[in-house]
Specification:
The complex is a heterodimer of chains A (114) and B (110). Chain A is mainly β. Chain A has strands at residues 5-7, 10-13, 19-24, 31-37, 43-50, 53-57, 65-68, 75-79, 88-95, 104-105, 109-113. In chain A, strand 5 and strand 6 form a beta hairpin. Chain A is globular, with a radius of gyration of 13 Å. Chain A starts with a strand and ends with a strand. Chain B has strands at residues 4-6, 10-14, 19-25, 32-38, 45-51, 56-58, 62-67, 72-77, 86-94, 97-100, 104-109. The radius of gyration of chain B is 13 Å and the shape is globular. In chain B, 0% of the residues lie in helices and 57% in strands. Classes of the chains: A mainly beta (114), B mainly beta (110). Chains A and B meet through strand 5 and strand 10 of A and strand 5, strand 9 and strand 10 of B.
Chain lengths: 114, 110
């Protein structure tokens, strides 16, 4: 069964450094998403991406964040200058269509900012 | 503002019993709702969804009920099994943006 994959599984970085989290969505999916989950808290929507552009983003997704689909398979989330409060699990998801279509989540990348 | 909450943070049931997990939401403009299951160390997994023009939807062993009058959503799991042990949370979608609830930890006792 096709699945969403994410790398790395755990990323440790120092405050102020740039990180890139990588995702490979399911191959025939057209919509891509990033979410984060701070330890012990609820999942939070960050951004949705379709047709090579951002379709929706939350208040969390400020200028420090960017997303890119650099080729036909990868979908990346970049945090330019990490802060301690960026420490969280970051989940990528993909779906065949927009609202109303099931989103398939990856296993997540645990980001630890020290 | 938007908020999605669950009534109970934990629920413990006996194997074979039915489970009911509840969720209250506040945004009356929500047009779509999803229940997710999250096992330890894994990403959320879609269980069942429901559109705002419906009040009930059934899947395999799961049923979602939507009461728009009181802005309440519930997930019923029939004949709960040990493999159902996980965190369950609801999400409401408005204009393509998802807002998630805190989660209820379901523990199934053998």
């Amino acid at each position: 069964e096709p699945e969403v994959t994410q790398t790395p599984s755990h990323q440790v970085t120092q405050m102020g450094q740039e990180v890139i989290l990588r995702c490979v969505p399911i191959s025939n999916h057209l919509y891509f998403y990033w979410y984060r989950q701070i330890l012990g808290q609820k999942v939070e929507f960050l951004v949705s991406f379709y047709n090579n552009e951002i379709s929706e983003k939350s208040e969390i997704f400020d200028d420090q964040f960017s997303v890119e689909r650099p080729d036909g398979s990868n979908f990346t989330l970049k945090i330019r200058s990490t802060k301690l409060e960026d420490s969280a699990m970051y989940f990528c998801a993909s779906s065949e269509g927009g609202a109303g279509y099931e989103q398939y989540f990856g296993p997540g990348t645990r980001l630890t900012v020290t | 503002g938007e908020s999605v909450g669950l009534h109970l943070p934990t629920l413990s049931v006996q194997e074979g019993d039915n489970s009911i997990i509840n969720c209250a939401y506040s945004n009356s403009a929500s047009d779509y709702f999803i229940w997710y299951k999250q096992e330890s160390g894994k990403g959320p997994q879609f269980i069942i969804d429901i559109r705002s023009n419906m009040d009930k939807r059934q899947g395999q062993r799961v049923t979602v009920l939507l009461n728009k009058t009181v802005k309440h959503l519930s997930l019923q799991i029939a004949a709960t099994q040990p493999g159902d042990s996980a965190v369950y949370f609801c999400a409401e979608i408005v204009n393509g943006k998802s807002t998630f609830g805190d989660g209820t930890t379901l523990t199934v006792k053998p």
